[in-house]
What does this fold into?
Amino acid sequence: MQLTDRTKITRLPKRGHHDTETIYPILDEGLVCHVSYNLNGQPFMIPTAYCRIDDIVYLHGSVGSHFFRELAKEIPVCIAVTHIDGLVMARSAFHHSVNYRSVILFGQTRLVTDETERWHALERITEHLVPGRWDDTRQPNASEMKKTMVLAIQIEEASAKVRTGNVGDEPEDMNLPYWAGVLPISLHYGKPEQDPVQDTAVTVPDYVTGYKRESK
It folds into this structure.
């Protein structure tokens, strides 16, 4: 990825990454991104589902959404995706931290009008959230497609920042009598809860019972 002032890591630069081998897996593992933009000097931000296809991020929303109508005007945006992997508790309050993986990317929105691209993006967004789901649903009809807006953001610049490992206390604090260490954090998926009005003869698919997040 191209490195500019927008994506250069100045605070703890050793945690920064600008290669797609680091950036793309972080994006692919996420469920929600936060999209921010500026309108008449007022910043706005919204969390939304997404997917990545090569170096393009796709979003979808209602054609009646004020947020999406603004994004459809081909404006610059900033998108963030973050995973929290652990709470790092040091002996000193100053050195408390978190283990995390995050990506910040910049690009300009584009309203997708080509029906083939729109359909493919909606399929991939669905598959990004729940792999195997698209072919196991009634797919959108013409009326639903008309009510849905699809946006594409070509990734112009991006950077990742990653913190791993244990506590980083000062040498003089190492013998203090306070517990120090890392409390790992991971997503947990519970037992599927079937729609109570559905016939129980419809069994839970394997892609639901075995659901997990992993980068592609």
